[in-house]
Specification:
OxRdtase_FMN_N; TIM Barrel; binds flavin mononucleotide; 11 helices
Length: 368
């Protein structure tokens, strides 16, 4: 029988009713103390028909912050705020992981009381930060390289974040290993020039990510932990001298840990334009025996083809889920889709967050 987006699937410890995953998306709408608000409760509740929701990047510590208004998972208030979200998603019949995040050098001293953000090596991103104080963004600073003895402390931030995510009622966690944030900064040699056992060889550069994975598995068990990787990404000034070998190694090692899933992004149009790595997912597919979630520019047809052929076990949708709270129902009925509005992606209130209409308005409240 052909596998479709509606074929139920076992992902680690979870049985999912469909293969449409909501990709993690930063929305910069957390309240005071980086606590998720009532609006976040509503936003995620609306999207509970996803096979799995992966909550937005959520910093595991104050040191991990890189943007304004991003939620954290390191204070009692944040845990309580997230508990409201997970309760609402569960009451609506959904399942939700949280993405554990540390921005590393993708940050600014503005967020750290004047101290420099941390990174594997003192290499600045050759770009401007996003605007965070009304000045249109400023050049990234040269980050402070982590001392060797600090690295276990940073890994421990992920352990504490994983514990806090359990207290907040999530079904599991995803480690953010993508998009040039701290684990990715260690992994790729364009941002890691260390000469200790966390730099140099591929095995050394992968050590930070793999130790985080082991630590988080120690909290949750492997079958409730996923990892997101973006081998083709050039955003945040990322580069590697041999990405096929680097990511191939990381994927092999993570796969051997019997994670719930690997969430791997293909090349975006921007990656292709930058002439970056642009590696087809098929290169890594044979290495993945745990569930593979594919991501990047999937629509209904591409996603159906990917799960039917086995190129992916599940597909995650970012912008389409952002704009279509009822995406699975729309796909099922070939209904028209709302278009995402990039002007309201980051920051603001309900507009562009909780006000995208349902295709069948009666379903907007049916699950509450
Ligand atoms: C508004 C917005 C915020 C995002 N924030 C995150 C994030 O916090 N963590 C992450 O791993 N990816 C993030 N992404 C990337 C998405 O998870 C996804 O990989 C990307 O949108 C490609 O999928 P799509 O083509 O289906 O939109 C974000 C994307 C968007 C549009």
């Amino acid at each position: 029988m052909t596998t479709t987006l509606w074929t139920p699937v076992q992902v680690g410890a979870l049985e999912l009713p469909n293969r449409m995953v909501m990709a993690p998306m930063t929305r910069n709408r957390a309240g005071a103390g980086n606590v998720p608000t009532e609006l976040a409760v509503e936003y995620y509740r609306q999207r509970a028909s996803a096979g799995l929701i992966i909550g937005e990047g959520t910093q595991v510590s104050p040191q991990g912050v890189g943007y304004p208004g991003t939620p954290g998972i390191h204070t009692p208030e944040q845990i309580a705020g997230w508990r409201q979200v997970t309760d609402a998603v569960h009451a609506a019949g959904g399942r939700m992981f949280l993405q554990l995040w540390h921005c590393g050098r993708v940050s600014h001293s503005f967020f750290h009381g004047g101290e420099l953000p941390v990174a594997p090596s003192p290499i600045a991103i050759n770009a401007k930060t996003l605007q965070f104080r009304g000045d249109g963004g400023v050049p990234f600073e040269v980050p402070r390289p982590l001392e060797r003895h600090e690295i276990p402390q940073v890994i421990d931030q992920f352990r504490l974040g994983a514990i806090a995510a359990q207290q907040a009622g999530f079904d599991g966690v995803e480690i953010h290993g993508a998009f040039g944030y701290l684990p990715d900064q260690f992994l790729q040699d364009g941002s890691n020039q260390r000469t200790d056992d966390y730099g140099g060889s591929i095995a050394n550069r992968a050590r930070f990510l793999l130790e985080i994975a082991e630590t988080v598995i120690g909290v949750w068990g492997a079958d409730r932990v996923g990892v997101k990787l973006s081998p083709s990404n050039t955003y945040n000034d990322m580069r590697d001298s041999n990405p096929v070998a680097t990511f191939g190694y990381a994927i092999e090692q993570l796969n051997a840990m019997k994670l719930a899933y690997l969430h791997i992004m293909g090349a975006s149009e921007a990656d292709l334009r930058h002439g970056g790595n642009a590696i087809p997912l098929a290169v890594f597919r044979p290495k993945v025996t745990v569930s593979l979630i594919a991501n990047q520019d999937y629509d209904r047809e591409k996603a159906m083809a990917a799960v039917a052929s086995g190129d992916a076990d599940l597909v995650s949708f970012g912008r389409l889920f952002l704009a279509n709270p009822d995406l699975p129902a729309r796909f099922q009925h070939h209904a028209p889709l709302n278009l995402p509005n990039p002007a309201t992606f980051y920051g603001g209130g309900a507009e562009g967050y909780t006000d995208y209409p349902f295709w069948q308005p009666e379903l907007a409240t049916a699950s509450s």
